[in-house]
Structure formats: structure tokens, C-alpha cells
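Holo prediction. Input below; ligand is pyridoxal-5'-phosphate.
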Amino acid sequence: MRREDFPPLRKTDLTYLDSACMSLRPDPVIDAVETYYREYPACPGRSHHSMSEKASDELIKSREKIADFVGADSENLMLTSGTTEGLNTVARGFDTQKVFLSDREHNSNLAPWQRKNCETVFLETENGLDIESLRSNVSEGNLVSLVHISNLDGMEFRIEEVAQIAREQGAYTLVDAAQSAPHMPLDVSEMPVDFLAFSGHKMLGPSGTGGLYVSERTQNKLEPLNTGGGAVEDTTQFTRERRDFPYGFEAGLPNVAGFIGLGKAASYLSDIGMGKVESHEHKLTEKLEQGFSDIEEVSYISNGPGVVTFWVDGMDAHQVALMLDRKDIAVRSGKHCVHSWFDQKDVRPGVRVSLHLYNNDEDIREIVEEVKKISYVA
Ligand SMILES: Cc1ncc(COP(=O)(O)O)c(C=O)c1O
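Structure of the complex:
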């Protein structure tokens, strides 16, 4: 799907299978970033000269496109440096004593809660998320903070149902959408969630960009991580008047080029259609699973489209990844920032294959062939 738009795929024989870590960027995104720096590299929202006005207009339009991409009103979307900043903003700034997590959270949805020193309850995911345990234990003022799609194996949690249960009990829901926003249609206006965090660099956008949706009912319960220029209406030597959400939460000069690039990425994906992206990745994942199933020395986990983690009998994951790299196949090896799952289940590090819209049948054929060869020498 539109492979020719992605420079690294035009130049080399690269088989890029590491999109859960970082996606490639298409020409229109790169061009949008470059155009900002070449043509109107000014401070948005500060000065009244033409370049600054142009930067302001482009940033406003980009915020709208990014918000629209997840079904949010732009007034309910804070621009962030990525999912991690979004999750930390909630962990630091939202008052709750008890948080429900799954046993397969990314470190970015684990470490902030450990630091907060609140009670954490882990929901089992062995046979899908243990929703019954949530239903019987969640209560008023709690927060349910869950990964939407696992970066380990693509497992998807039924977020709408979870959020409904939480809301009925007077609790709140935070969604780590780092791996869902780039790969499936999302519409927060149809989900009773309170917070949803995502990253630009996994959805064809520049690194250091992302968004945090905050529901209207929750905005006045949240304190910003930072304060300073741009986030205050007025100050005296001893007082400050904070701006409303989202601006009061975005202190300092924003990553202007990055957000303009992210706006372009959002419209690029929307033009293709996220439903199409999802079904394309689904078909490729089935082919990959089929290919791996035929190799006796390989075991794998895959519980949803786009992500497959595998192990070759008797071989270290990093060694497998390095051997694949020699064939220009880029994958990731290790514990994929879900260390707690690997440690709790006593599973050794794995090799992860992750897909995006630019992958094709040939990529799947390549990796299956090379893993087969590696398995023979194992
Ligand atoms: C599920 C999940 N959550 C959170 C993150 C952190 O995202 P970022 O590094 O963009 O803040 C990632 C990144 O890999 C992820 O896969």
C-alpha cells in the first residue's frame, strides 16, 4: 500500500518490520516538516508578523486534524511529546488512590504508577482481559489504565466495555493507544473513556509528537505537568492565572514542525482509511502466522493483527535479530518494554515482527524464508 511514498523503501532492499517501535514516514510528512523550517520558521501564537501568523494557522489546522483522527474535538486534545508524556500527565496530575492495570503494560504505563505510590491492581490477560475481576472490584474514584493493543502480540482489550463498567461505578478510564491509533479506526466520541494517549512516531508522524485526549468532565480534575510561557493568561510576581485545557497544559514553545508533520500524517492515514489499514495488516499477519507455524523450531505469540513475537529454539533473540539484519530485515529483539510480563511469566526475550500499511506479501515471504534458514543452523 503506497510503498513508493516511503524513502527508505525506495532506496534499498529493506524489509522493515519494526513499526511497533517506530513507523516510517511518507514524503508528504517529511515535506510538511521541511516546509515549516524553510518557509515560515517562526513562533506561533506569540508575535504578529506574517511568518508567525502562518505558523499559528498551520498549528491550529494540525491540532484539528490530529484531534479529528481520534474522533476528538480539538479543544479536548493536548499536544504532547508522545504516549509517555500523556500517561505521566495523568499519573502526576489526576488524583486517584487505586489504579487497575493489565499484566502486559508497557513500562510507560507502569513506572508512572509505581512512582505515584498508589495501589495497583493487575488484571490477568492469559485468556483475554479478566473483565469480571474488574467488574467486581472497581469503585468510585478509581482509574482503569490499560493498553488498548499490546505491543507484545497485538492482543486487543475491549476498551468500550471496560470504560462502560468503570463509568457505571464512578471510576475513570485511561487508554494507552500507542499501538491502536496507528492501526485501526478510533473514535473517542463513541467511547466513554476519560483519557487516551498516543504517539506520532508510530503513526507515520515525526518523533517527539503525540496527543492526549481528555474528556470534558475530567479536564478540571487534572493538573498540568508543567507550567510557564503559553500556559498562563496572566501573572503577577506572586500569582498566575492558568489558561484552560489544552493550552494551560502545553507550557513552553511547542514542537511546531513536529505537530505540523503529525497533522499531515493524520490526514495521510485518514485519506487511505484506517479500516483499510487494519484489514491489510490483518491479512499479512495471518500469512506470517501460517509461515511461522510451518517451522518446527519456531514458537510464537500473536493475538491480533500487526504484531507477532517469536522464538527460535536454542537461539538468543538478539542473535536472531542480528542475523536478520544482515539480510536487511529490521525487527526488534528483547522484552519490548514489557519487562514485567516476561519476568512474571518467566519467558525469555523474543523477536518481534510488527507491520504497517507499507508492508506487503514479499516482506512476509522474506522473513519466513530467512527465519527458516536460521532455524536450520540453530
Ligand atoms: C503500548 C505502548 N505504550 C507506550 C509506549 C510509549 O510510547 P512513546 O515512547 O512514544 O512515548 C509504547 C512505545 O513503544 C507502546 O508500544
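The mean pLDDT is 96. That is the main takeaway for now.
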